[in-house]
């Protein structure tokens, strides 16, 4: 028998990304990125390592940075130990992050892999010769880059606009990871609990379903009556907003909009309720205003658990998880969305970059969705591996 190997989380994730592993095996033969440099600006954490190593298997030289506040030092060490150039520090300082972005663009990469539009927005202002185009991961990046299309004038494929990303990550993975995060933060049960989910978009649908499957009684609130009707026909309780807050043991926001639960709701919140957010920005639960409310007698903090208990003057108390930040990326040992959902999204990334590298797209493909044939190829490969 071999000596037992001591492996890291990065190794676990890499070995779990079966689609990327298959893509890397093909890229080793076909070398779509031979002689090209790819500049990347995406979270430096274990799942992106699997993507970056796939691109390198395809012959790419990589220059990498992360996003604001999400760079994991072990990931940076791992990449550097494999000879990959990384300009990144774990920082919330926009200027420091900007310096890393500038360092990437100073290398004049042939392709860019962007997350939030940080790299392409800079390249639009300071264009350089040789940039072929690239990919953007997110909705927020798409919104930022659309007005820059005429300046960019290059193929940029938006991964979020693939139906696969919508259902694999937003619908299925976000619900699972918010449910996992509720258990991880609280170690409390869901059985028989009354849960209210605000927002019944892709993320809210998965969240409501995961809590219902865990034997909770789930209510849904959505301001769009058509979407609320869909929730009703899906079998969820759709009470009026006030009743949905009054009755909830667990309140979850996942709308993408600010001020969903505010200090004005304090009279409605039941003693013992747990509040958590799954939306991108930490503004869906107005934590600051709640903390500052005159109705508050005090706040107790479980520092290591990232839970705060807000005590009201009338004797009620409720709990906020992760200060209202995206709960699946907050608190102790945040894991984010499942490896499989990211494997799918990153396989789309790898194939889209391959398409741009091979010159398969014109300038009109600037900030457009993933080509349908790439969606079909990635879906078919995933199903083959699952059989
Ligand atoms: N946690 C994660 O890992 C993760 C992953 C992907 C997306 N997100 C975020 O989750 C949020 C939701 O994404 P989505 O794809 O479901 O969006 P979506 O636009 O598909 O759905 C949002 C829903 O919220 C409803 N809504 C808006 N304002 C409301 C209000 N005041 N009260 C009740 N309902 C309201 C809308 O009508 C809509 O049905 C976004 O912020 C997105 O960035 C988080």
SS summary, helix count: 15
| Mean pLDDT score | 95
Taking all Cα atoms into account, the compactness measure Rg is 22 Å
- Strand fraction band? 15-25%
Kindly report how far apart the N and C termini lie: 30 Å
Helical residue percent band = 40-55%
Bound small molecules, deduplicated = nicotinamide-adenine-dinucleotide
Short synopsis of the structure:
The chain has 387 residues and is an alpha/beta fold. The chain contains 15 helices and 14 strands.
Describe the structure in your own words:
- This protein is an alpha/beta fold and 387 residues long.
- It folds into two domains: 9-154 and 338-386, 3-Layer(aba) Sandwich (Rossmann fold); 171-329, NAD(P)-binding Rossmann-like Domain (Rossmann fold, 3-Layer(aba) Sandwich), CATH 3.40.50.720.
- Helix content is 43%, strand content 16%.
- The protein has 15 helices and 14 strands.
- Strands 3-2-1-4-5-6-14 form a seven-stranded parallel beta sheet, with helices on both faces. It has a seven-stranded mixed beta sheet with strand order 8-7-9-10-13-12-11.
- Strand 2, helix 4 and strand 3 (85-86) form a beta-alpha-beta unit.
- The protein is globular, with a radius of gyration of 22 Å.
- The two termini are 30 Å apart.
- The model has no long low-confidence stretch (mean pLDDT 95).
- Residues 170, 174, 198-204, 221-224, 227, 254-257, 260, 278-280, 326, 328, 337 line the site of nicotinamide-adenine-dinucleotide (NAD).
Tell me the layout of helices and strands:
Layout (H helix, E strand, L loop, with lengths): L8 H8 L1 H13 L6 E5 L4 H12 L3 E5 L7 H9 L3 E2 L7 H13 L4 E4 L3 H8 L7 E4 L2 H7 L3 H4 L3 E3 L4 H24 L7 E5 L3 H12 L3 E5 L3 H9 L7 H6 L3 E4 L20 E4 L9 H6 L3 E7 L4 E6 L4 E5 L17 H19 L8 E4 L2 H15 L1
Parallel strand pairs: 1-2, 1-4, 2-3, 4-5, 5-6, 6-14, 7-8, 7-9, 9-10, 10-13
Antiparallel strand pairs: 11-12, 12-13
Helix pairs in contact: 1-3, 2-3, 2-14, 3-14, 5-6, 9-10, 9-14, 14-15
The structure holds nicotinamide-adenine-dinucleotide (NAD).
